[in-house]
Amino acid sequence: MIAELLGTVALLVLFGISQPDLYRTKLWRAGHELGFNSSPNVILYAYANYEPQPTLPFVWSQAITDFNVAISVLSLFLLLSKLIAFIMHVWFPIVAMAINISLTVLYIVSIYGQAGPDYLDPNYPSSVAWYIAKPCTVAANLSVQGNCKMAKGAFAATCIMFGIYLVNIGLTVWALLPNPANDIVDDEDDDDSSPTALKKGGNWQMHSIPPTPRTGTIPFTPRTMAFNTLERKLPLRNQYA
């Protein structure tokens, strides 16, 4: 959970800074100038020619930015909920499996969105975003290089979180597997209430004591001994009788 917390905080900072559009359009425009992808001017062309807006690539859309912010906030909320459930001993493996699988799928979508393809312009097709596939130094502008490094950092943090949730899934699967040790412990608990366990020094205080078997002689009790002492004649009384 410590690694998950560090990764979540890093994503909250990086995705929060990038909202609403700190560097997305700048990287889009820089990639077109370098000949790597389409141009953001297609939006202006559509407005100028009274044409419907084209479907923007997911990697350059506002949806991917909002999506990344949403999953970072959701990850923090679920992490806090998991910590509370773990302390209260209600963090069951089946619940953990559902949550970890859901978050893993969300982070797969985020990775795809950050490094997704761009086929909007047939003259400049791109299967992977240039700031992921290429070094930031391909851009001469220092500002673009800084934005590229920030985008790379957010992508790396997302991949780390994806790896953490994969490990969580593996641990959850391991926890769901049948464990013979649990059956052994249960058997030992059941055997503690048997007569054999009582003979071996088990917890016998809570069990009823078996009745004394009847015999032909009168049971000898402390009260019987007291009555016998009272009826017995003392030696001095016998001497002066």
TrEMBL record:
According to UniProt, the name of this protein is: Uncharacterized protein
